[in-house]
Specification:
79% of the residues lie in helices and 0% in strands. It contains 9 helices and no strands.
């Protein structure tokens, strides 16, 4: 129960940051400045890349080796399963990215606004899983101070990069004709899946403890799919990609510092 409360607090923070970003719809009339959006997306990509390595893959290897096995199989196998899981969802679920003209996924008669919401919500799933799994891992280690700090660092990093995600949904929805309040609510609720999946994986952690290394690597693979498929390409739109590149590096360094300093 303590782990559930910690996970709820961690993913609750990431949800709050999503809502805070979505609240920008009350202060801005237009869309996000393209330059600022590239910087935000690049930063998010860097945070998620560092989190995948330091907060998920390395712990997955360490947990497998501590159990007397090889860390290679669960790290590689779980990572690939996460990649194919997100690829499958991306292929099946109808969704539309804010800057795209054509929707992705199977053909559907969904409204454009519904597909915009689905795109952001879909990619929040692995983030919630990652935070929840980190707190579940901390609970399995008796809630040691270092393990809890590492999970908290991951929650902070995910929360920081969720801020622009909330704005990236609420502002386009406003342009699609939504009222500011409705756009804010949709932008905020896209982050609810993080809270839901974060708590669910903690509740299931007791029965899934033997495969915890696989689950950690799975979350890493799912997040890296989002990074490579969506964030980095969108961060490099335009003639010059230096801003997007440096933003990725900045996000990576910030998440690395959080994990090393706190974990």
């Amino acid at each position: 129960m303590t782990a559930v409360l910690y996970a709820a607090a961690g993913t609750g923070f990431t949800f709050f940051m999503t809502a805070l970003g979505a609240s920008l719809v009350f202060f801005f009339r237009g869309s996000v400045n393209p330059t600022a959006q590239r910087a935000f997306l690049g930063f998010a990509a860097g945070v998620m890349t560092a989190a995948s390595v330091w907060s998920l893959l390395i712990p997955a290897i360490e947990e497998a080796e501590a159990a007397g096995g090889s860390g290679l199989l669960p790290a590689v196998g779980g990572f690939l399963l996460g990649v194919f899981f997100l690829w499958g969802l991306d292929t099946v679920m109808p969704h539309l990215h804010p800057d795209a003209k054509e929707p992705e996924g199977v053909s559907a008669s969904w409204k454009r606004t519904t597909m915009l919401f689905t795109a952001v919500t879909l990619h929040n799933i692995p983030e919630g899983m990652a935070v929840g799994l980190s707190f579940a891992l901390a609970a399995q280690h008796g809630a040691e101070e270092g393990a809890l700090a590492a999970a908290g660092a991951l929650a902070v990093g995910m929360g920081i990069q969720n801020f622009p995600e909330g704005a990236a949904l609420s502002l386009p929805l406003r342009q699609e004709g939504f009222s500011r309040t409705k756009a804010f609510l949709y932008g905020s609720f896209s982050g609810v899946v993080e809270l839901i999946f974060g708590v669910l994986v903690v509740l299931a952690a007791g029965t899934l403890e033997p495969v915890m290394p696989w689950l950690l690597a799975f979350a890493a693979g799912a997040m890296m799919y989002v990074v490579v498929e969506e964030l980095i390409p969108e961060a490099h739109l335009g003639e010059h990609s230096n801003l997007g590149t440096m933003s990725v590096m900045a996000g990576f360094v910030v998440m690395m510092l959080l994990d090393v300093a706190l974990g």
